[in-house]
Amino acid sequence: MAHLLIVDDERSICELLEISFRKEGHKVETANCGEAAKRRLASQVFDIVISDIRMPDMHGVDLLRYAKEVSPLTVVILITGVPTIGTAIDAVNFGADRYVIKGDRLLDELRPAVQQVTENLALRKEATYLRREIRRLTGLDHIIGTSPKMRAIFELIENIAPQASRVLITGESGTGKELVARAIHENSARSKNPFITINCGAFPETLLESELFGYMKGAFTGANENRRGLFQAAHGGTLFMDEIGNMSVTMQVKLYRVLQEGKVRPLGSTEESDVDVRVIAATNKDLEKEIAEGRFREDLYYRLSVIPLHLPALRERRDDIPLLVRSFLERYTKSMSKKIDGIEPEAVRRLEVYDWPGNVRELENTIERAVALETGNRITVDGLPDRIRNHFQETVANASGNGHGPVLPADGIDLVRHIEAVERSYLLAALERAGGVRTRAADILSMSYRSFRHYAKKYGV
Fold first, then answer.
1. pLDDT tens-place string over residues 226-264
2. Left, alpha or beta for 277 (phi > 0: left; psi -120 to 50: alpha)?
3. Cα distance between the two ends of the chain
4. What pLDDT is attached to residue 200?
5. Which residue, 130, 165, 194, 238, could crosslink 306 as a Cys pair with Cβ 3.0–4.6 Å?
6. Per CATH, which fold does 410-461 belong to?
């Protein structure tokens, strides 16, 4: 629905239009003179202004000109009981969107005009939303994983998505916090409304405030028009606030107030407006430690973390690596039009052993690089970065028990069989420590029971 300002020196006209459009679900405010209307326009953002042309203190065309100056996207509809060709020409020249004659059919003329503007606003918001989505969808198309930890995440998303509670997502960089926030939004009743994201660490304090809460013309140098903030843009939907731990303490106070009262006040305005937004925050920091050291407010922490959700690092769910690799391969071979039909099992083994400090994002970049550089029809070990190959060799050396690195026999070594022997020895050691209980042994080795059973069968354990 739209936010309307009705301006007419005849109170009966204001009351008639206010009652009618409120019944249709619009938010309506009125002003009985041009100066009062200018004060409203200076402090709030309206979708539509419906103004009389002839008023004692101001001509409607002058109000039109002012409205377009402070808020160019606001639609202005002029109404008059004494139509003249000159007034109509002025109205068009200064940007009036409609020109309606007062009379018995005033409401019948205005209703379709307001309805059309409302539909156009919805289309414009949807187009803005889609453009934002295209720019921001740079990761997985959906969350991928079948490991026990990821199945638990999926179950939690399914349970919390229909609720209106705020969510605090924690985890290392690159674990997919925005993807999880998006999944929560898309499985909620707000899914048809905007999902808007902001990286709180990417803005200085003053700019972050104007981005979140909006501003009025003249609020600061360069504020040449009224602008909605992201809270208002996300009304009815979800606002994802990434890197919330990087927000200054001053901004934390202002955010807490918005969350507590459900109202925002744009910079330079004396008016507050209600906002209905579900906030999902994310951070890679330990906020409890930040609170203890005085860098994060405890009251804001409890406002944000109604439902805490922690994402595991990729090294904690290695079983998902082959599935992720296959998904990335399909994506990048298609986007680069490369004829690559797979990846060597030995290359996958290298990827499974690596610790992935950059998590899923680092794995995606690794596969993209491998696809881009591959000249054959299959990704090989040689197509992987040095850091991954070197890590694998160090792991093998440490597993051999020689802290100074592997000692190769003069006639070489069968590396595959050697690694298999090392893997088998670890399976046996884990079983011994677990007292023969396979599920415990799988936990010791940070693998799923299904994977443990697979390797146990493979090595005859």
1. 999 999 999 999 999 999 999 999 999 999 999 999 999
2. beta
3. 66
4. 94
5. 165
6. Arc Repressor Mutant, subunit A (1.10.10)
